Amino acid sequence: MKSHLLLMTLSGSLLLAAALAAEARGPWRASEDNTRGWQFMTPEERVEHQARVRSFKTLDECHAYQHEHHRQMQQRARERNSALPSGGRDICEHLRPAR
């Protein structure tokens, strides 16, 4: 009886932890940590960028937008005699097929 109760409690705890972890991730949010050119965008552009990234249905359309966004941010950086940070997260990652 005790082992059954312990197993049920442990199973419930694991399910709760998994649900909380999934909820904590939530939808993708644009931020200065994951958006190239964040410092060159207006608050309105940041909101629009986040909405656009969330709206993509295909990897190709996401990559096309990402390429154009990076081009625009590179141009803004040049205009301000600044460097555009490289690297960062692939915003289209969520559209890749599961392995």
> N-to-C terminal Cα separation, in Å?
41 Å
What characterizes the major β-sheet? Answer: none
Q: Provide the gyration radius in Å.
A: 20 Å
Strand fraction:
under 5%
The low-confidence runs, each spanning 5 or more residues with pLDDT under 50, are 14-25
Summarize the structure.
The chain has 99 residues and is mainly alpha-helical. It is 59% helix and 0% strand. The radius of gyration is 20 Å and the shape is elongated.
What secondary-structure arrangement, pairings included, does this model have?
Layout: H1 2-25, H2 43-55, H3 59-79
Describe the protein's architecture and organization.
By secondary structure, the chain is an all-alpha fold. The chain has a domain of 67 residues. Helices cover 59% and strands 0% of the residues. It contains 3 helices and no strands.
Keywords for this structure?
99 residues, 3 helices, 0% strand
